[in-house]
Please model this.
Amino acid sequence: MNAVEVNRAAALAGVSHGFLGRRGGVSGGLHGGLNVGTGSADDAAAIAENRRRATEAVLPGGELVTAYQVHSAECVTARAPFDHALRPHADALVTDRPGLALGVLTADCAPVLLADREAGVVGAAHAGWKGALAGVTDTTILAMEALGARRERIAAAVGPCIARASYEVDLAFRRRFEEADAENERFFADAREGHAQFDLEAYVAHRLAAAGVTRIETLGLDTYADADRFFSYRRATHRGEPDYGRQIAIIGLD
Model:
């Protein structure tokens, strides 16, 4: 059996966490590997086994907690596992309860894991461009503070996501960011006429720093470019594939 590949961040050393890709799962075909996306067309039993493997690789014996992600800035405080069918519509989770494995699913969007070790508070955020621009990392930090965390003690890591070299956008997309803050132009590089390349990872790191987080690590892993290790919505779209898998990032307290 292939082992689950777990990418970890030095910034979160001492906290159970991991950014997972597609290695170590049981799914086949387009979803080959560790697909954890219940919204995909993959076999339900395979998804359940992949989710179990992912949780055990990061927080053995923990209970996985995920939300119904909608590309928002909504953050929910988890005090117990959710009924999967009734899970909240949100894109970030925080907790101070040991044994809960907070998970966010991605397939090009940026997963962000956060921890205040001293307070015993952790968080996980799904930062696609919409959620990032709307402030999903800001609401996550506020929710952590409500549990006793302090932003100057929070460490954060931004995991595998689509890199600037792979993320071409149109100029209307660019204008959204520049209208929000003229300095956001620095996250774009010129591309072919009428287009630009967007650096999602750098933008998310900037939002964390602007919120007062002083220890931030970016893993620099491009989901689009590395098909052997990661699922990618954009890559699947460019290939004309009918579906795609999702990977997961998990953090929890022992």
Notes: The two ends are 26 Å apart (CA to CA). The mean pLDDT is 98. Residues 44-58 form the longest helix (15 residues). The CA atoms of residues 25 and 34 lie 4 Å apart.
